[in-house]
Structure formats: structure tokens, C-alpha cells
Amino acid sequence: MKFGPYPVAQAEGAILAHSVAVAGGRLRKGRVLSAQDVAALVADGHETLTLARLEPQDAHEDTAAIALARALVPDADAAGLVLKPVGTGRVNIVAAGPGLVRLQAAQIHALNSVDPSITVATLPDLMRVDPGAMVATVKIITYGVAEPALHAACAAGAAALRLLPPVLRHASLIQTRVDPCEDGAKGHAVTAARLSRLGVRLDPPSLVAHQITPLAAALGAARGEVILVLTGSATSDPNDTAPQALRQAGGTVTHFGMPVDPGNLLFLGQLGARPVIGLPGCAKSPALNGADWVLERVICGLKVTPAEIMAMGVGGLLKEIPTRPRPRRQGEEGGAHVQGD
Fold it and tell me: Which domains are assigned to the chain?
């Protein structure tokens, strides 16, 4: 592409690099100038313009953006995404439904390294999105780009982006109570709202004493595709009440604890083929916590391993909820022990 000042008389068919005022209006940057545009510019006294001229091996910014978006998402329906060209070298890629962003970061990095004028910006991998949320945007920075570079970028980013939709649709929540007056209403309502974002139905409330045997019985009676446990007293050890209840019910505990705060006191297990998630106390708040990351992945069909949980520490320092009983900084001066949740 050639870019620079040209006489107005040579402007027909070129791309206007900067908006220009003419009698009766304004010619916007990015416009491909017609003979009528040139006549208006001459009549208005313009002699020189900054123009972009595409050469035979160049693709126009809009053509290039669409080609790159289609390379990233070759089958939009199957990927759960929608391509939305908006002009000026941009195509937005949005979620067709709820789910998790799934991308190949190495491919996106390789694509963005081909040519500085070819760019793709995305949400983080495995971020939950609602329908209509922008997942990525393709932007060609210049008015045109060399086709060999475009082809290389398309090859680098081939099929690198999709949405993981929910595959589980039914959940059970069992809560325990230490205080006989506790009704569990808040925990159930917050969990129902959390699940509804992914289209998951929550069973009616189930509230039992904070003891191994009644909790084990409730686990055995649960019918959800995923079972959640929210205890009235924090689970502070792999052999605490809730993990032991899961074992008594015939299940297994595969992992306890996570390097995400709030959310440290999560445990993960199985009851038959069904995943069981022991929620930390912070799950009673709608604010983002570590349990969200595990729950969302399980609902969207991903197997969450202990190694994956322990790799969540980088980026795992989340915003602290205002109602947290023991804030992070409490006891700093005296060195008091502060238990997480």
C-alpha cells in the first residue's frame, strides 16, 4: 500500500486518509473517492490530499478483517459465535449464547506477530460470557494489508476461537446449618442466580444439620447432574464434615483447597459419575470467587483436575467481598492467624 500526499486530480479510486470538509458536508476518512468526490474537492479549492492507494497484492481493510474473522471462526454456528462486521477494518465476534470462551492463546500470539497492522484482541481464555457479549475483535489498523501477510495470519489463527456452551442443566445444592434458626435462603438464592447465568436449574432448598450422617443422606438423595455443598461452618480440612460426608455417601474427594482468594476453602469430588463441589463460605456472596471458575468449567463440560486448580493462583487474587468475616489485612500488625474462606 502506498500512503502519502497526492494531488487532488489523482485522487479518484484512492482512500481518503483524513476527513475533509467540502461545500455542503464532509468526506469521511476511509472513503474511496469517486469522480464526483474529486470534482467537489476541486471546486472547494483543495489541491493536495493524504491518500492511501492499494496495490495489486493488497487487501482492503474490511475485506481483510472479514477474512481473518472467518479464519478464526470457520463455522460460527458450531463455535457458538456470531461475526459482526462493523466497517473501518473491524469485525466483532460475539457470543451466541452463554458459555466459556475457549481460545488457543499460542495461535492468537502467532497471528498478532505476523504484521503490526493485523490485530486480534480477545477476552481471557475460559472467561464466562453472557449471550451477545463481545468475545474478540478483529481490527486491521491500516487501510489495506498485503495479502501474503493476511494469508499467514489466517493460517496462524485457524479455528483458534470458540465458545463452550453449558452441558449440565440441573444442579442440587445442599446446605448445612449450625444455628437452628438458619434458613439457608440467602445461600440458595445466590446460588440459583449464579447458575441461571448458564441456564442451569437448581433444585428446591435442601437444609440439614452440620453433621456427617445427615449430610451424607442428603448427598445420596440429590438428583442434580452436579451437586453443590455449602456448609454452615467452613470446611477447614480434607477430613472435615462435608468431605467425610461425601465419602460416607460412597463418593470420593479428589482435591481440597485452591490458591484463589476469596475461595480458598473449596473441595472437589465425585459421587458416581456426578461432580461434587464443596463451596467456600464466600459463595454466599454474588461476587466473583474461586468457586465460580470451577463451577463454570464443570457446567460447560470440562474436567477440572487438581493441577488445574493449583495453577489458578496467578490472577487468583480477587476483589475482597465487603462482608467477609475476616478481611485479609486483619491481624497484620500482630501477626495473628487469619483463616481464609
Answer: 2-53 (3.90.105.10), 58-164 (3.90.1170.30), 170-313 (3.40.980.10)
